[in-house]
Amino acid sequence: MLRMVSGKPSLFSVLFMTQIFHGITSHQCGAGIYSIFQKMLRGHTYMTIESQAGTVALECREACHTDFRCQSYNIDVLNSKCELNNRTKEARPEDFVKHKDRYYMARNSKRVPLGSIPELPAYSCREIKASEGGQAVSGTYWLDSTRSGNSILAHCDMKTEEPEFKAVFTNLGSTAAGGPSSIGSHYTGQDHDGQVTVSSGIQLWTVPYTGEYRIEAIGGAGWYGENSVVQNGGRGAKLTGNFNLTKDEIIRILVGHKGKRGPNSKTTTGGGGGTFVVRGTNTPLIIAGGGGGIKNMSERHSGM
């Protein structure tokens, strides 16, 4: 099991500039619309609309207000085009740039908050907080940190601006000696959905956030002979440690299987497999040995 403990806070600045453009009426400004001349939000346009010089401002405004994904828009004055954006300049200040032929419009009236619906996931908790002017509260939000198109629900701590992440890795239902061959639907809807692939029985997990993670590894239990009074094998080891992981690095995870009975005699049994968590190609983070196989056991310690 992996759980994110904390992240590294960072400073961000939000620049508020208001300049009324001649094509927008005072009534529209009162509805929560303001413009910034010769500026645009770059790289977050999901739809471009072609219009005419006299109507582009009104058509763009109406298009933005009827599309729940629209957070802001750019107007290309020279070419009479409208660009709908799924981010605001507050969310992505690094992409708010100068452009002599455009002006930027913010949608504040009935704007759907970033991360509040799966169709509008944020890249990070920090982006949500910035998008809301620093006023976002801790809670559950939709995130797509890998930008894969698969949004997941995660709890954001807005004090640290990092998600509370929890992932439980299993053997994916496999009992084969070579381990699992595919993820299937085992992690669907969980925090690590879409972050794991399988290669040669080993699960490759792409770290979604930079921060400190608590990793708990448990080795597979051993099996027991058919004549054993206690029908349980030896327990696998359980180890826990905290580790600093970096976004996009690959963690290799091998989950140990439970032991089996011998093929020729049901009174002989095998031990459980070890669970290995390593970073890169061969750097161990934590290893938990498997439990021993039991031929015949009359009493078992209750454990801790």
UniProtKB/TrEMBL annotation:
Keywords assigned:
ATP-binding, Cell membrane, Disulfide bond, Glycoprotein, Kinase, Membrane, Nucleotide-binding, Receptor, Signal, Transferase, Transmembrane, Transmembrane helix, Tyrosine-protein kinase
Q: How does it sit in the membrane?
A: Single-pass type I membrane protein
Query: What GO molecular functions are on record for this protein?
Result: ATP binding; transmembrane receptor protein tyrosine kinase activity
Among Pfam families, the record links this protein to:
ALK_LTK_GRD
Q: Where in the cell is it found?
A: Cell membrane
**What main location does UniProt list?**
membrane
Q: A Gene Ontology CC term for this entry?
A: plasma membrane
Keyword Glycoprotein: yes or no? yes
The leader peptide range reads 1-26
Q: What is its EC number?
A: 2.7.10.1
Domain Apple stretches: 29-109
Instruction: Spell out the protein name for this chain.
Output: receptor protein-tyrosine kinase
